[in-house]
Design brief:
By secondary structure, the protein is α+β, with helices and mostly antiparallel strands. 33% of the residues lie in helices and 21% in strands. It is built from eight helices and ten strands. The strands form two sheets. Strands 1, 2, 3, 4 and 5 form a five-stranded antiparallel beta sheet that branches. Strands 6, 7, 8, 9 and 10 form a five-stranded antiparallel beta sheet that branches. A hairpin with a 5-residue loop joins strand 6 and strand 7. Helix 2 packs across helix 6. The N terminus is likely disordered.
Length: 265
């Protein structure tokens, strides 16, 4: 039996929403045209965290977290999303951005590009399949054995990602069909807020998390309470693949309940 709240049928039937105007310029995050991609490996141990791909035909770039890397793979997306925005703001092509990323062996975040991993794929879906457990290319063993590199600086301030105190959360649904992708929760008592991907939504939910992680990081950087950040997100609901579901704001006794909801089919 599931505890998941049903999606109002009118949202499931008509989820092709207009993107909210304004904001920084961004590359598209999906294409059915050919792309190139490289592997991102963990600086602590060399495991694969995800993949960065780019395609010039549709002016598209994105990071796909590897499902088996869990939250560490998802959180790595924050660093890459920031770099995508910077590259787009400079007006360079996706392939040029990809080349720049590969040329920088020590980017911010938990991961780094794996030298020699640049490969071709017929479209975005092929990379997503790889990230969710398809035909994964092995990591060169010498990188797996020698990835204990210098730690980067602590980075921007962030909310706590756990809380055993009461929280509030809202549901994020897919723009393509209305299925639930995950949940954003927040609690002021522990200064905590996080995105929780719905397990059944697979790689699409993991990738959507990058957008909400970045917004939470921006909110923390402005020093606002988690509840205020939650309210801001609901008032500006558009994500990348998903959007906040109106009227879905709900109370939970702690963050663990929201995580359990996300695991339940």
């Amino acid at each position: 039996m599931t505890s998941e709240r049903p999606v109002n049928p009118r949202f499931a039937e008509d989820m092709w929403f207009r993107e909210k105007p304004g904001g920084p310029p961004r590359y598209r995050d999906w294409t059915d045209k050919p792309v190139q991609y490289f592997t991102v490996v963990d600086k602590e141990g060399g495991g694969v965290l995800g993949y960065v791909w780019a395609g010039d035909e549709d002016e598209a770039v994105a990071y796909e977290p590897r499902q088996a890397a869990g939250s560490r793979g998802v959180n790595e997306g924050i660093s890459w999303i920031s770099r995508f925005r910077e590259a787009k703001a400079r007006g360079i092509r996706p392939s040029q951005a990809l080349a720049e990323f590969l040329a920088d062996p020590e980017p911010g975040g938990r991961g780094r590009p794996l030298p020699g991993s640049l490969a071709d794929a017929p479209n975005t879906a092929a990379v997503e399949d790889l990230a969710t457990g398809g035909s994964e290319r092995p990591v060169n063993r010498r990188f797996d054995d020698d990835m204990f590199l210098r730690q980067v600086s602590p980075g921007p301030p962030r909310y706590q990602t756990r809380s055993d105190k009461p929280v509030r959360y809202f549901t994020v649904v897919d723009k393509e069909g209305g299925g639930v992708l995950g949940y954003v929760w927040a609690g002021d008592e522990d200064d905590a807020a996080a995105w929780v991907p719905r397990k059944a939504a697979g790689g699409r939910a993991l990738a959507e998390g990058g957008h909400w992680h970045v917004r939470l990081e921006e909110a923390k950087g402005r020093g606002i309470l988690p509840s205020q950040a939650l309210a801001e997100m609901l008032s500006n609901p558009e994500g990348n693949r998903g959007r906040a579901l109106p009227d879905s704001l709900t109370d939970a006794p702690n963050a663990g309940v929201v995580k359990a909801l996300a695991q339940d089919d």
